[in-house]
Amino acid sequence: MRATIAALISAAVITPAAAQTATPEVDKRQANQESRIEQGVQSGQLTPKETAKLEQGQAKVEAKKEKAKSDGVVTDKERAKLAKAQKKQSKKIYKQKHDKQVAPKAS
Q1: At a CB cut-off of 8 Å and minimum separation 6, what does 74 contact?
Q2: Does residue 103 sit in helix, strand or coil?
């Protein structure tokens, strides 16, 4: 009985803490943007240099996300900053995929 109560209390404490650092929207958008980059590589819309630069941008957003999570709480302000960084990165992906540069064809 005591173990059950202790487990319930523990779950009640841990669950809200996990929810405060959960970033499902950020994670979903990151995955989507990675897919867009990969699609651009496959189609030849992105050169290796463009791809590397976009991957660096994705890594910076990921680092910002981890920093926001580091104190155990992702505030609304931090979420807004992450959304802004992702929007900026999304625009860069679009711009690079739709410019006139194409990856050289493999021979």
Answers
A1: 20, 21, 22, 23, 68
A2: coil
Report residue 57 as tokens.
């941008």
End-to-end CA distance of the chain: 70
Cβ-contact 102, 47 below 8 angstroms: yes
Q: What is the pLDDT of residues 45-68, one digit of tens each?
A: 999 999 999 999 999 999 999 999
Distance, in Å, from the CA atom of 26 to the CA atom of 24, rounded to the nearest integer, reads 5
How does DSSP assign 75-91, residue by residue? -HHHHHHHHHHHHHHHH
Quote the CA–CA distance of 105 and 21 in Å, as a whole number.
43
User: Could you state, in order of their start, the residue ranges of all structural domains in the chain?
Assistant: 2-97
Residue type, 27: D
- Entry pTM: 0.78
CA distance 56 to 106: 24
